[in-house]
Amino acid sequence: MEARAILEQYGITVDFAKINLVELQSDSLEQIARDKARSAFDSLKKPVIVEDDGLFIDALKGFPGPYSSFVFQTIGNIGILKLLNGYADRSASFRSIIAYTDGNNASISEGLVKGKISDIVLGGGWGYDPIFIPDGTRLTFAELKEEKNNFSHRRKGLERFAEWLLAVN
Amino acid sequence: MEARAILEQYGITVDFAKINLVELQSDSLEQIARDKARSAFDSLKKPVIVEDDGLFIDALKGFPGPYSSFVFQTIGNIGILKLLNGYADRSASFRSIIAYTDGNNASISEGLVKGKISDIVLGGGWGYDPIFIPDGTRLTFAELKEEKNNFSHRRKGLERFAEWLLAVN
Is A52 tagged catalytic? Predict the structure, then answer.
């Protein structure tokens, strides 16, 4: 729904396809998304985009990065806050990768939002939203609610992808 | 070298092959190892074993589990100790999966060592060895040095595999 609303503004229509895809284990979000897009195209035989995202914390050498989902399910936000205990540097970024392929053309578009990790869990949102404060506000993604979309890494990635797609067509 | 020494006792000879294999992203060590063994067989056309292992901490819902290597490279042992701060339950297990395939037959053999996470880093060994105390001792894997092999999850997995292989042949 998020992708549809954003891409609509560029005259691009998109449908959701539920397919089980195996995911590579890689420290590179790009590689994971590119490989998934190729598998999705092989199974659908239609142009596809695949989105993959992750939270990268500078003081933790990019942890949880490509394994953000597993880390959230195990140690959660409380775990992240514990790990950052005692670190002055709480800077982090949320990265979204949009991988596209239509069998001939392929592209990778990235959306990045810089920010920092909050001291406590703030707001009731999903995933890492309650602990991520994007630059330019004092609120977490969770507290920002609908306003989050103005900062969203996913929106940025989708917009870049749309611009690329319109340029090559 | 470790595998060769152990399998030799069963009359099984084994060579090391360096191949670049992509690794699945999965919460299941078995699935990762099985898939890698299949890829290795496809590329070598010879019977292969692939070993994958992980540290599973009970209080952290199995974290770092299949992503033990990435987690070690980012938050390291200090990160694990921080995460366990305040937990009375420090129980953990080291699991080793040996996946075998020769194109017709396939097997998965598991070696498991139960133990607990130490309060501080003890000994200068590799990976999580300085924070894992196997049941039956008061020393970490790192402090145990050569004696570690008596407790090793990898040895157990390889022995089970050897017994299976001799039984089916």
Answer: yes
